[in-house]
Amino acid sequence: MGKNCAIIVAGGKGTRMGKGINKLFLKIKDKPLLAYTLEAFEKNQYIDSIILVSAKNEMEYCRSEIVLKYSISKVKKIVCGGENRQQSVLNGLNAIKESDIVLIHDGARPFVSHKIICNGIKYANMYGACACGVKPKDTIKVKNDVGFSDYTLDRNKLFCVQTPQSFKRDIIISAHKDIMNKDITVTDDTMVAEICGYNVFLYEGSYTNIKVTTPDDLLLGERILRDFNYLDV
């Protein structure tokens, strides 16, 4: 069986949280958000290693106050992030020594389940590239330049992409290097694969697999955590 590595991207500024510190260090029930995220991959039997990507000035804090304090033994390296998420992911990819499948995950998604992680590995092996997500609950409209509704999108064809986004290692490394050389900016890793001609399989995520971005998300996270079990979702 192949090796599976998770890259956890934890170097964002989190300005929308308005707390003055990295939002991943904020706590729910006395534990940092980043610790919950790392524990989800630590406890998954199919994850062999974790690469944590951090801001340069937060690397030691991540090591001492997160990785060591919460005994995240699968973290093999903490690497310095880049100027943007795209560069940070590539730095993480370059730090992998041995892996067949790579799962790239936002550090700010602490409620990812074992089922989502396992399906990411399964579908990446089958299709080369995949991402989890959910159907939007709301009707989505396109707004014109003067503030009026232009038209309404077909909700049945829309998909709110989450992480992890999972890939065969060779595919995602070569794709990232290719777009970096072409100076193309992307917002997530499925775009990287798509731009380079790869089809991305989309599979079911979870509405509890939220990205904690605002203070309201912290309150929602507390409610999710009351009933959350990595194995059940």
From TrEMBL:
Pfam families: IspD. It comes from the Bacteria. Belongs to the IspD/TarI cytidylyltransferase family. IspD subfamily. Its EC number is 2.7.7.60. PROSITE patterns: ISPD. GO terms for molecular function: 2-C-methyl-D-erythritol 4-phosphate cytidylyltransferase activity. HAMAP family: IspD (MF_00108). This is 2-C-methyl-D-erythritol 4-phosphate cytidylyltransferase. Catalyzes the formation of 4-diphosphocytidyl-2-C-methyl-D-erythritol from CTP and 2-C-methyl-D-erythritol 4-phosphate (MEP). Pathway: Isoprenoid biosynthesis; isopentenyl diphosphate biosynthesis via DXP pathway; isopentenyl diphosphate from 1-deoxy-D-xylulose 5-phosphate: step 2/6. The keyword Transferase applies. InterPro entries: IspD, IspD/TarI, IspD/TarI_cytidylyltransf_bact, ISPD_synthase_CS, Nucleotide-diphossugar_trans. One of its GO terms (biological process) is isopentenyl diphosphate biosynthetic process, methylerythritol 4-phosphate pathway. It comes from Clostridium pasteurianum BC1. The record marks R155, K211 as: Positions MEP for the nucleophilic attack.
